[in-house]
Amino acid sequence: MSDQVLAALARYGTPALLVIVAVAAIGVPLPVMLLLIVTGSLAAQGVLNFWIVIAVASIGSVAGDQAGYAIGRWGGKALVRKISRMLGDENRLRELDAKAVRWGAPGVFFSRWLVAALGPWINLASGAAGYSWLKFTIWDVAGETFGAVLFIGLGEIFSDRVQAISAFIGDLSWAIVAFIAAAFLGWKLFFRR
């Protein structure tokens, strides 16, 4: 999959970048961090313009995030309710809605770049929970822009070590997700007693 994504970037340039990051933000598992790092490397080589690719990556990601939010807002809640009724636990849905609203701005901001694997789920949950669209958009734009500058900047700075940087960041992201999951489960177990 990575080879096809990178080939699309090499062949079509910034339009491919726009489409790929938007589709990934909706929830399709694509190697976006690797793509952004390689884009930074291409900017360092003069193939792409650094500021244009940051703008394109940010716009594409925000567009995909907004689509995920809209799906959650206008269709996701009914779908989640239907599934939760089939599983017999509608109270769990109310708990998840409350958590999405409580996490709010930090949840949106950090899920754009630090724990990007959670981003599409945060988008859906924020929409389904009725989190303010304006607040979501402000923190979404801030997080996606910061993430684009971070990863494209890393790619430009370390353009000769793209593979190593990509592997490290991917491992670090999953380590953070695992730590958060372990802390959450530990907290739940502690308070169940």
Write the layout of secondary structure elements.
Blueprint lengths: L1 H11 L1 H13 L5 H13 L5 H38 L2 H24 L5 H11 L3 H25 L4 H31 L1
Helix pairs in contact: 1-2, 1-3, 2-4, 3-7, 3-8, 4-6, 4-7, 5-6, 5-7
Number of domains: 1
Number-wise, the strands total 0
Shape: globular
Q: What pattern of helices and strands is seen along the backbone?
A: HHHHHHHH
What is the oligomer described by this structure? single chain
Largest sheet: none
Strand content: under 5%
Gap between N and C termini, in Å?
Answer: 45 Å
Which whole number gives the mean pLDDT? 82
Q: Which spans of ≥5 residues are poorly predicted at pLDDT below 50?
A: none
Structural class: mainly alpha
Q: Helix segment count?
A: 8
Helix content: over 70%
Rg from Cα: 18 Å
Keywords:
mainly alpha, 193 residues, 8 helices, 0% strand, single chain, globular
Brief rundown of the structure:
The protein has 193 residues and is mostly helical. It has 8 helices and no strands. The chain has one domain (2-192).
Written overview of the protein:
The chain has 193 residues and is mainly alpha-helical. The chain has one domain. Helix content is 86%, strand content 0%. The chain is built from eight helices and no strands. The radius of gyration is 18 Å and the shape is globular. The chain starts with a helix and ends with a helix.
